[in-house]
Design brief:
Blueprint: H1 4-9, H2 11-20, H3 27-63, H4 69-101, E1 122-126, H5 139-146, H6 151-157, H7 168-187, E2 191-193, E3 198-200, H8 201-207, E4 225-227, H9 232-236, E5 242-244, E6 250-259, E7 278-288, H10 293-310, E8 315-319, E9 331-339, E10 344-353, H11 357-362, E11 364-367, E12 373-375, E13 377-385, H12 386-396, E14 404-405, E15 419-420
Helix pairs in contact: 3-4
This protein binds one RNA strand of 88 nucleotides through residues 37-38, 41-42, 44-46, 48-49, 51-52, 54-60, 62-63, 68-69, 71-76, 78-79, 243, 245, 371, 373.
Length: 423
RNA sequence: GGAGGAAUGGCUGAGUGGUUGAAAGCGCACGAUUCGAAAUCGUGUGGGCCGAAAGGUCUCGGGGGUUCGAAUCCCUCUUCCUCCGCCA
């Protein structure tokens, strides 16, 4: 959420930023609401000050044996007026907050201005495209043949898009999760979190999934809970409504399953693991001061990339332009893996710096050098998401006979197994 | 699921209707003392909103109510603790 005072003082900059984002927002309406709010607030508070004064004098009067009835009546009348003002304020506050919740973050100064994904610059590339002396197979064919997953039965018990892994496929999921968590906790300094997989509306609003993206979420209406679409939600909201007294930055890594309805992408990428309703992911989350957030964002992106380097996978890192930037992000790098049988890049991580946008929504603060509370900056990114990582491992490391060589980094996590082949 | 108890500032903990935003202690910050430190003494020390500031207002788990006035009384919700039941 943006600071209403910032919008008030930098209306034009905000409008430009929203235009760069292709965001449909009515900043003038928000400013008008803000004006009205302050006018009414001033009047209401003046009246309250008066009431408090007179009320106290009643106490005195009674002590001195006077008759306070006339004054009481007067104050009661003031109270009625105040109630009316408060009622108006409640309404305006709710409207204002609702409006602010629908305004996306300001892109950072350094975010390139652009229209859509075609304007996203490639920042760096690691490795290169593997060449095959045979026609590489798609992961769904490889996996089916090797008995790594059984999507038909997954669909039977849950629905299409709910993958089901079997045997070595299930083991590979577990191995990757453990490999990534070990890397981030032992080498990159993150503290592991095992959070709830369901979150309430407050948490979902804090990170920006609600209210705008409700249709992308699964819901459990009877309990008011949502299966999390990313560990970002529970881990960021860990510190909601707190003033942190521990040293920043705080670094957390968390494995969770993620649940996404993919409502806007129905019918797209329906085969295999390209786009699924449930997937595993290791997420990295940082809480920093404004001074260090840019640097910590770069480091977090590097931490995510390290996973792919260790697995020897060809990837590229792109920076999202203003037109392609996520709702809550100020700056974002996407990491994409090359999948030869798909003949395209697959996004496995979005590393975003949210500035104080999420912190303001979730009310996460720290004490600055003056000891005053200020909003932290939050940063997060996948480190990384499993399905497309599995696709890349399978499709890049496949052999002519349909077996798959496992990256060396995974051998210890697979109980020494070096290759997936027909048993 | 049933029956009880609890929720106050960074922490411990007073406070059952009137200048209480809240005693006291601890902690923390600054100052004095000291060659320096400890100890000691003094001063200060929650947060939101409005305001250029002075100041005002709101806030004692959340919401609602009674009252001229609520941390204090009433209703309700949430969370935690204890016991019973059920259960991975």
């Amino acid at each position: 959420m943006l600071d209403i005072r910032f919008i008030r003082d930098h209306g034009d900059a905000v409008k430009t930023a929203m235009a760069n984002r292709n965001a449909d927002t009515d900043i003038d309406a928000v400013l008008a609401l803000d004006d009205r709010r302050r006018a009414i607030l001033a009047e209401a508070e003046e009246l309250k000050a008066e009431r408090n004064r007179v009320s106290k004098s009643i106490g005195q009067m009674i002590k001195e044996g006077g008759d306070p009835e006339a004054v009481k009546a007067q104050v009661r009348e003031m109270g009625d007026k105040i109630s009316a003002f408060d009622e108006q304020l409640r309404e305006i506050d709710a409207q204002l907050r609702e409006s602010l919740l629908y305004i996306p973050n300001m892109p950072s100064e350094s975010t390139p201005v652009g229209k859509d994904e075609n304007d996203n610059p490639v920042v760096r590339t690691f490795g290169e495209k593997k060449s095959f002396d045979f026609e590489p197979q798609a992961h769904w064919d490889l996996g089916e043949a090797l008995g790594l997953f059984d999507f038909e039965r997954g669909a039977k018990i849950a629905g299409s898009g709910f993958p089901l892994f079997t045997g070595k496929g299930a083991r590979l999921e577990r191995a990757l999760i453990q490999f990534m968590l070990d890397l981030h906790t032992e080498e990159h300094g993150y503290t592991e979190i095992a959070p709830p997989f369901l979150c309430n509306e407050t948490a979902m609003t804090g990170t920006g999934q609600l209210p705008k993206f409700a249709e992308d979420m699964y819901t459990i209406p009877v309990d008011g809970l949502y299966p999390i679409p990313t560990a970002e939600v529970p881990v960021t909201n860990l510190y909601g409504n707190e003033i942190l007294d521990q040293a920043l930055p705080i670094l957390h890594a968390a494995y969770t399953p993620c649940f996404r309805r993919e409502a806007g992408a129905a019918g797209k990428d329906t085969r295999g693991l390209l786009r699924v309703h449930q997937f595993d992911k290791v997420e990295l989350v940082k809480f920093t001061t404004p001074e260090t957030s840019a640097e910590e964002h770069e480091k977090l992106t590097a931490d995510a990339e390290k996973v792919l380097q260790k697995l020897g996978l060809h990837y590229r890192t792109i920076e999202l332009c203003t037109g392609d930037l996520g709702f809550s992000a100020a700056k974002c790098y996407d990491i994409e893996l090359w999948a030869p049988a798909q003949d395209k890049w697959l996004e496995v991580s979005s590393c975003s710096n949210f500035g104080e946008y999420q912190a303001r929504r979730a009310n996460i603060r720290y004490r600055n050098e003056e000891g005053k509370p200020g909003f932290v900056h939050t940063i997060n990114g996948s480190g990384v998401a499993l399905p497309r990582l599995v696709i890349a491992i399978m499709e890049n490391n496949q052999q002519a006979d349909g077996s798959i060589d496992l990256p060396e980094a995974l051998w210890p996590y697979m109980g020494g197994l070096r290759r997936l082949e027909k048993s």
